[in-house]
Write a structure and sequence with these properties.
By secondary structure, the protein is an all-alpha fold. It has one domain. Helix 1 packs across helix 3. It is elongated.
């Protein structure tokens, strides 16, 4: 699960980089626009993956304290 979440987060980061640098939304381009159902699904999944990856910060801290 961690690896999948990390890969999805990288995809999201690359998409945001493209938006910031070139004003090009790759997800919207691939799946029919920002409002398209599949685009919104991809955005949601990537967002959830980012939240999952945020837990890495707390898990790492807990692992250091447990040693």
């Amino acid at each position: 699960m961690d690896t999948i979440a990390l890969i999805l987060s990288v995809v999201g980061c690359l998409n945001w980089g493209l938006i910031g640098l070139f004003q090009f939304d790759l997800v919207a381009w691939l799946f029919g626009g920002q409002g398209a159902l599949f685009s919104r699904l991809v955005y949601t999944i990537v967002g959830l993956a980012g939240i999952w990856c945020a837990t890495f910060l707390f898990r790492r801290h807990a692992m250091v304290e447990g040693e």
